[in-house]
Every structure is written in C-alpha cells, then in structure tokens.
Amino acid sequence: MSRIGATLNGIERTLLNRLADSQSAANLNALRLATGRKINAAKDDPSAFIALSHFETEREVVTRTLSNVAAASSMVSKTQLALDQVRTQLNTIRTKALEDQDQALSPAQRTANQSAIDAAITEINRLAGSTIDGRRVLDGSANFDFLGRNGAQVSDLAVYQTDGGRQTLVEKQAEVIYTGADGFATAAANLTLTGNGGSVTFSVTTNSSLAQIAANVNAHTSTTGLVAEASGDQLAIRSTAYGDNAFVDVNVNSGAFVVTGADASGRAEGRNAEHGVLPSIAGTVDRAAERARLVHDAGGGTIAANATFTLTGDRGSASISVTTVDTLAAAATRINLESHVTGVTAAVDGNRLLLESVNYGYNAEVAVDVTAGTFAATGGNGDGTANGLNAIATINGVRYSGNQAAAPAKLVHTESSGTIAHNATFTIAGPDGTSTPIVVTAGNTLSTVAGLINAQSGTTGVGASVDGTELILSSEATGYEAEISLNVTAGKFAIDGGNGDGTARGEEAVAGSGRVDGNRFFVTDNRFRYEIEFAGGFSGEFDTISVESGALQFALAPDVQQRSTLAVSSVHAARLGGLSGKLSELATGEAFSGLDANASRAIRIADEALGDLDRIEGLVDGFANATIGSSAALMSAFSDQLDENIDAINEVDETEESLLMSKNEELINNAVASLAILSQQRSSILDLIQQAAGLSS
Predict the structure, then answer these.
(1) Tell me, what DSSP letter sits at residue 416?
(2) Could you list the residue range(s) of the whole structural domain that residue 453 is in?
(3) Rg from Cα positions in the chain
(4) pLDDT computed for residue 657 by the predictor
(5) Are residues 320 and 252 in the same domain?
(6) Do 417 and 346 share a structural domain?
(7) I want to staple 210 with a disulfide (CB 3.0 to 4.6 A). Which of 44, 235, 467, 639 is the partner?
(8) Pair 144, 567: CB distance under 8 Å
(9) 3-class SS at 176?
C-alpha cells in the first residue's frame, strides 16, 4: 500500500528549478540595468570577459596618452604665444632702426628710439627666461646639449632629430706640415720621404718654392703613397691611406727641413674612425666659404671720377652716387648706409674700395651697374658682378659640396708686406696665348704687378687683381677648359693654389651633394637631421661635437619608450642675430647702439634675428601641427575604436534588458503560482484521504 510522503515530486522540482533560473536571470537583468554593463564578473562570459579586459587596458593607455598630448599641446601653444611676443619686440626694434636709416632723426628722437630698442631687448630677455608650465623653454635649456663645440669653428648648430650613435672621431690621414717663408724653403736639405707605398729621396734649396716641392712629391705618389699641397707659407704632406696603419716618415739626410705633426723620429700616423653611444658630428671643412667681392681701385685716397651706379646684392638694389670730392671712407660710409637694402658692405684698403657681400656662398652677390660717369669694379666674374663660393666639408664620412657654378682658373701670389720681395721674371700662359716675359722688381707694389699682367690680358686671357696681400691671377673664361700657368724663368715668384705646380684649371658647373648655403650645411644622415654653420674663414678639421639630451621629451604614443623630441634654441638677445652681429649689441653702450651711422647695421641685425626666429617658430609650429596634431587625431581615433569594441561586448540595451527582466519576473510569478496550486492540490488530496478514512469530521 503506497503512502503520501513529504518528498517533492517531479513537477515541483521542475518548477523550483525554473523559479531559481528565472530569479537568477532577473537578478542579472537588474544588475546590468543598474551598472550599464553586460559583463560584471568573469562568470558572466569568460571569453568575452578576457577580450573586454584587453580592450579596457588599451583604453586606459590611450586615455593616459591623450592626457600627455593635451599637456604637450598646452606647453607648445604657450611657447608659440611667447614666440609671437618675441617677434613683436623684434619688429619694434627694426621699426625704430628703420626710422633713422637716412640719419634724419634729431638727437632727442634718436635717444627715444634707442630707449625703445633697449626696452624691447629687455623684454626679449625676460621672455627667454620665463617659465612655461613649470619649465624654461626659450633660454636654451630646452635644446640639445652640444659637447665639444668650438665657437671659433662652428658658429651655429641646430639639431632636429637624433638617432643613436655616430662617429666620434673621423678617419684621418697621416700628415706633417713644413713652414717656409715667402712661399719658399727656408734652408737647403736632402730628405727621404716614406709612405705606405715606399720611399723617395730628393733635395730642396732656398730657391725651391713650396709649390715646386709639392709638385715633386706628387710626381712620386704612385711610389710613396704620399701627396702634398702648398698654401701660402705652408706645405702639407699627407698619406693617401687613412686609418691607424697610414703613415708619413720624414728623414732629413742633411740640412734642415723641420716639420710639425710628427714624433721625434719624424713619423706621423693616421687615425681610425671611432664610434660612441652618443650622436656626434665630426669631420673637416675642406674649403671655407667665400663672400662675393668686387674692387674699385681709385688710385688715391679720393674718388677719381664722378659716378652714379646701381649696387645690387642678394637683398636688393640701391642707387649710389660718388664725386671726386668724396674720400674713399666717405664713399664706403654711403654704401654701408644702404647695406640693409643691398646686403653689400664697403671697406677701404689703401687706395682701394672693397665691395663685399654680407653673406657667404654662391647665392651671395655683388653687382655694379654704372648709369653715369666712371666707376670701375674689377674681380669677381670680370663683368662687374661677383658671387661667393659655398664651403665644402666632409661630415661623418660624407662629402658635401652643394651646387657649384662654373669657375675660372685661379693662381695666387702672396706678399706679407704687400710689395714684391724678390726680383723675378716669368711668363703667363692662358686660354688665349702666352705672354712675353714679365719682369718684376723687389719693392714693386702688387698693384704695379697686376698692371703689368693686365697689359697682356688681351693676349693671354688672364687678368690680375689685388686683394690685400694677395695678387690673384684669374682666367677670363670659366670651366675646365680655362687653364692658366705661370713659369718663373728667373728669381723667385711663389704661386699658390691650382694644381700645386704653377698651373690651374677652372671648374665646371656641377650639382653637388647635399644642400649647402655658404657656410651652412643641411644634413640628413638617416634619422639624424641637423644644420651646422661653420665660422667665416674656417677650414680644416673641427672638434668632434657630441649631441646629448636636454631637449623637450613628450610621450605622445602608447609605447612609453617612444618619445617625441622638440629642441628649442635660445631666443636670448645674445643668441639672436647673424653675420652682422647679435641683437644684444644694439643695446645702449654696446658696439652697434645709438642708431645714426649704425642704423643700417641695426636693421640687418634685426632681420637676421627675425630669420633665427623664423627657424625656431617653424620648428615649434611644425611640432604642434604635425607631431602633436597627428598624435591627438590618432589617439582620439584609437579611443573611439576601443569604445566601439567595448560597447559591442559590454553595452547594455536597456529596452531589451527591461523586457527580459519583465519576462523573467513573469516566469517567477508563474512558477510561484504553480507551486501554490500544487501545494493546494496536495492539501486537498490529504483532506479527502482523511475523510475517507474517517479521520476527519
């Protein structure tokens, strides 16, 4: 006989399970609606939880990067505003100087303008020393540190980007230097020269010019591995090989032939290149840049004839008038007062008026176009025009020459006293023919000798001009076919330049390597980018410069190891300016203050300072627009994409979730109601059984 017990039957178990499931689902619906998240714990969806955690971690990194971008944008924007204020002050200085370009201001007006210039310089220095978001940016401390830079060699250096180590010592030839006098050996000697290839023995006398000795050495290069070059009173003997194994040995068998650069035994050795962990700049200036120059030989201390001419330089043109009552100094002053318009200055050298460009290089220009009267300008291109020469340099093993114009053949004779030291007879052969013997006598001026040479230029195609202590012989034609030679048949007449043997060829126009402007080189070495400007007149090996940190560093990418660099040069008045001078030199009491005759130079200095500011602003603006702007756009796009990915996994559809919760609550209610019915049914059956058994009344 079966019994009715207290255990649950199958239907009740099913209803209770459904009740638990619906209650759990409804609780989850309520949690999702409360938090706005689909996944609140790993158990909700393990695989989705892992993907979601990855996206949320990425979003945190991007959010932090966007915060860095905003901070960088703030600093750079404020830097731009400060630079705008510097420009305002520079424009004030230029305006005040320009008001006195014709020396028209009264003393009181000049004093007032000078006071305004002083105030502007003071404000520029204040801006340079101010802080931006807690950091000094414009005083040079936000620039790279340059270790080893020699100001006598390198006048300016701007590094834009670095990329690891570079050469710290450039590979070098072995070299010794012999110093003569007046271009000749100072004593007789018999010597043996030895290089990596072998040896040669020869003799020199006091009648041996350094150019002749160089030619003798070069005639045996294939035997010895040595080359020589004469320049002025110095003779350089070098190995053709480079590195630690290269050497030059000078053994004096008799007489005297003293060299520098060698050890006690007369031996000099080369040097291997060395590298370091810091980016560095090393090398040599193979040829210094030259200014454009023309010469007016007045024959006396005053202008020889009335004239009006247009003087043109790389800045522009001005009309200049001179008369016979003008001293050369007065004419020079008149030209210099227009130098801010033309870019050409004038100086007096004896009876000559030297017209010279302010700037160096092929783009530097001097041109004289006579519109009335007579004003002869010699030198340069031979037609009243002249251009400078770009420097040539070997930097970190790469030779940079820039674009070069076709050039004439040139030889130079130098006299330290400006007059001929020795009697001599020589002939000159040029593109058009050979001269008759030219005889010079000790005591002749260089101008006299130039006159003798120019008297036969119609025959030879070779002209001569004087530049200080130098007599310059130049072919009228340009290019490789323009060749000149000077042959001394009696006495002493030393010649420098050219091929080192008294001959020279012109140069063809070439498109050289790298961008060069005068003494300034624009270098891109993989990702190492910089501009380096060498001091005027400097040539030879320059001290190695190591580039160290110091520039502003910004973390503008998710990879914290990846930093963006902004190097900002100083805008202090002592740093702004160029070949004409520094801005600080315009302050009261300094070299170029007071306006009046200094007004033109002051304008030039202000223009050069504005050029410096253009470069600084261009760098800062470029960083703001390219680096910060692109990073902000990229990070914002990343953030938006991550938000979309996270929302796709975790975003709650409130309408759908509310409907599901209502459905689950209905299921709960149904299950509870069903359980109540079953409970009632169980109770009714029990009552019936009790009645049937007579157990109830």
Answers:
(1) T
(2) 406-508
(3) 43
(4) 67
(5) no
(6) no
(7) 235
(8) yes
(9) strand
Residue 37 has pLDDT above 80, yes or no: no
Residue 553 within a domain? no
Model confidence at 185: pLDDT above 50: yes
DSSP codes joined into one string, 424-442: EEEEEEETTEEPPPEEE-T
Q: What is the mean pLDDT of residues 31-58?
A: 70
Backbone dihedral region for residue 280 (phi beyond 0: left; psi -120 to 50: alpha; all else: beta): beta
In a domain, 630, yes or no: no
216 Ramachandran zone, left/alpha/beta (phi>0; psi -120 to 50): alpha
Neighbouring C-beta atoms of residue 162, cutoff 10 Å: 21
- DSSP letter for 268, please: E
204 & 245 share domain: yes
Q: Kindly state whether residues 414 and 484 are assigned to the same domain.
A: yes
Q: Where are the beta strands (DSSP E) in 388-519?
A: 392-395, 398-400, 403-404, 408-414, 424-430, 433-434, 438-440, 462-467, 470-478, 483-491, 503-505, 510-511, 515-517
Q: In total, how many domains does the chain have?
A: 4
Q: Is 105 left (phi over 0), alpha (psi -120 to 50) or beta?
A: beta
The average pLDDT across 417-440 equals 93
CA distance 37 to 21: 20
Mean pLDDT for the stretch of residues 456-477: 87
- The type of residue at 579 is L
For residue 187, the tally of other CB atoms under 10 A from its CB is 13
212 belongs to a structural domain: yes
Q: Does residue 94 have a pLDDT over 80?
A: yes
- Map residue 249 onto helix, strand or coil: strand
Q: Last residue of some domain: 454, 476, 508?
A: 508
| Amino acid 3: pLDDT | 47
Region for residue 419 given its phi and psi (left: phi exceeds 0; alpha: psi -120 to 50; beta: otherwise): beta
> Is residue 238 within 8 Å of residue 246, measured between CB atoms?
no
In sequence order, which ranges of 538-653 are alpha helices (DSSP H)? Answer: 599-622, 629-650
What is the arithmetic mean of pLDDT over 527-538? Answer: 91
Cβ atoms 198, 261 nearer than 8 A: no
Separation CA 157–CA 533 (nearest Å)? 6
Position 128 scores a pLDDT of 95
Alpha-carbon span 309 to 322, nearest angstrom: 9
Q: Residue 602: inside a domain, yes or no?
A: no
List the beta bridge partners of residue 419: 445
Distance CA 466, CA 444 (A): 13
Q: Residue 633 and residue 458: Cα distance in Å, rounded?
A: 70
User: Residue 653's pLDDT is what?
Assistant: 62
Cβ(418)–Cβ(445) under 8 Å?
Answer: yes
Identify the bridge partners of residue 462 per DSSP, sorted by sequence position. 475
pLDDT band at 41 (very low <50, low <70, confident <90, very high): low
Tens digit of pLDDT for each residue in 676-696? 777 776 677 766 766 666 665
Same domain, 372 and 420: no
What is this structure's pTM? 0.72
Burial of 179 (0-12, 13-18, 19+ CB in 10 A): middle
Dump pLDDT digits (tens) for 273-296.
766 556 889 999 988 999 999 999
Residues 178 and 267 in one domain: yes
Q: Could you tell me if 449 and 376 lie in one domain?
A: no
Question: Mean pLDDT, to the nearest integer, of 510-539?
Answer: 85
* Residue 575 burial (C-beta neighbours within 10 Å; 0-12, 13-18, 19+): middle
- Rounded to whole angstroms, how far apart are CA atoms 201 and 247? 17
Q: Quick one: pLDDT band at residue 632, thresholds 50, 70, 90?
A: confident
- Residues of the chain above pLDDT 90, percent: 49
- pLDDT at 1 (0 to 100): 39
Q: Helix or strand or coil: residue 32?
A: helix
CA separation for the pair 617, 620 (Å, rounded): 5
